[in-house]
């Protein structure tokens, strides 16, 4: 996942920087001041790059490296040439607040890409806000307090409190980024489970989950819901004469044509082999027959343009959901209609009336 390595590197650099801070009183000034602050700045810079990569933005790695170099030089300037703890603290605060603002801006720029749950993005935004506010509050305290410490290494209750809080700042940023990575991985796994890898149609599993959800909604709202079951005619000769690769390309060509002909709210699923199902919310039986006719005509037009679909026709069975039906009942009803279409000579659309077939279907299921 893009950005993961940078987030892990940020955590490792943060550990190194915190160790330098912790043993600062026992280390040479160059390590306790310049190196410690430079490593910590590099850690937050790596987190910024990780977030940029995670959301597909330009990482700006060169700009981050230059900013870290100038920041470290500034720390050295306010240490050796102009010894000012307040100036060093202000420089740290401005750098860290700027990085947090950059991460927050990256998230907000990508808000159209956000997917539920939103708590991971809100968590990162909250951490960015708290870090920036904490650094700025520390600078304000150093500037206003009469007994403010003159060095980061000087024992002081408030300094210890601020530094202890800042120890959780970078881990919070990294943890938020890894939460986003985890959600991306889960979403990819769900997508892989719900999609047919060949045709990009929904899988059989996803079809039944969607069917149950749409049937519950249809029962609640009283709106119609229809189902088409589609099977290729003369598909086996494609595999036998042109090979299975040609058969796969024919399935992909059909799915592409079907998806372009159907609405975004319709659910096209590959049920297995060369059999597809289409769930059509807000569609009654008459409208479903018209959609089936249009789809059949689209494929017949395609067969004159695509060698892989040449000679393929469709048999389609259409059914409609009624109150208290299950997905299996509606699918079985469509399957009976599809069987009738095959038995009648193929290359046709058949609908079995619900009232005529309901009792027998319930016994079959």
UniProtKB/TrEMBL annotation:
<feature type="transmembrane region" description="Helical">
    <location>
        <begin position="157"/>
        <end position="181"/>
    </location>
</feature>
<dbReference type="Pfam" id="PF00990">
    <property type="entry name" value="GGDEF"/>
</dbReference>
<dbReference type="InterPro" id="IPR000160">
    <property type="entry name" value="GGDEF_dom"/>
</dbReference>
<dbReference type="InterPro" id="IPR029787">
    <property type="entry name" value="Nucleotide_cyclase"/>
</dbReference>
<feature type="transmembrane region" description="Helical">
    <location>
        <begin position="86"/>
        <end position="110"/>
    </location>
</feature>
<dbReference type="InterPro" id="IPR050469">
    <property type="entry name" value="Diguanylate_Cyclase"/>
</dbReference>
<keyword id="KW-0812">Transmembrane</keyword>
<feature type="transmembrane region" description="Helical">
    <location>
        <begin position="62"/>
        <end position="80"/>
    </location>
</feature>
<protein>
    <recommendedName>
        <fullName>diguanylate cyclase</fullName>
        <ecNumber>2.7.7.65</ecNumber>
    </recommendedName>
</protein>
<feature type="transmembrane region" description="Helical">
    <location>
        <begin position="38"/>
        <end position="55"/>
    </location>
</feature>
<dbReference type="InterPro" id="IPR043128">
    <property type="entry name" value="Rev_trsase/Diguanyl_cyclase"/>
</dbReference>
<feature type="domain" description="GGDEF">
    <location>
        <begin position="223"/>
        <end position="354"/>
    </location>
</feature>
<keyword id="KW-1133">Transmembrane helix</keyword>
<keyword id="KW-0472">Membrane</keyword>
<feature type="transmembrane region" description="Helical">
    <location>
        <begin position="122"/>
        <end position="145"/>
    </location>
</feature>
